[in-house]
Amino acid sequence: MLCEEKLEVFENGFEDGKFKLRVEFYGKDAKRLLLAIIRELYLPDYGEDYVYPFECAKEFWGIYLDPSEIVAEEPNFSPIKFVNRSIIDRLEKTLKEIEAPEEIKERIDLEKAEIVKLKKALLALGKDFILDERGYLIVFSKPSVRELVLKYLGALDEK
User: Fold this and answer.
1) Where do the CATH 3.40.1600.10 domains begin and end in the chain?
2) How far, in Å, CA of 125 to CA of 68, rounded?
3) N or C: where does the chain have the smaller number of CB atoms within 10 Å of the terminal CB?
4) Superfamily for 78-145?
């Protein structure tokens, strides 16, 4: 669905021609996180009162999310000093369990990813993906999107 001149929202993500980025998720539902990102991207253009692309995406995905519920957080994780085989195996197991196209899964290089620990799970942080051991795979077209995803990772905990 076209929600803005250059913003297309689809079932598992969005593509934006204005910012030249694409964000998709696989595994568990990450639409709330994507809504937070869309709102932040368009907030400067629309102002606080009514961010049309955010409202349009909410309607398309059938999600009620009040802007006041969106909370940006400083990512609270600790780096893992020594990545051993069992850590890689845990993340590979998560990746195998996520339903995603094979070409997407093949792009995920866990050996080169930065691996960190959240309170509840491990995260593999790549240049163009974040794999959350809780069952989320988020892929994106620009490395700068990684910081936006991390900023709103708390949205995955709220349902």
Assistant:
1) 2-69, 78-145
2) 28
3) C
4) PH1570-like (3.40.1600.10)
What architecture is the 2-69 domain classified under in CATH?
3-Layer(aba) Sandwich (3.40)
Cα–Cα distances (Å) from 52 to 59, 68, 84, 86, 119, in that order, read 11, 16, 46, 45, 35
pTM of the model as a whole = 0.92
Q: How many CB atoms lie within 10 A of CB 43?
A: 14
Contact 53, 3 (CB under 8 A): yes
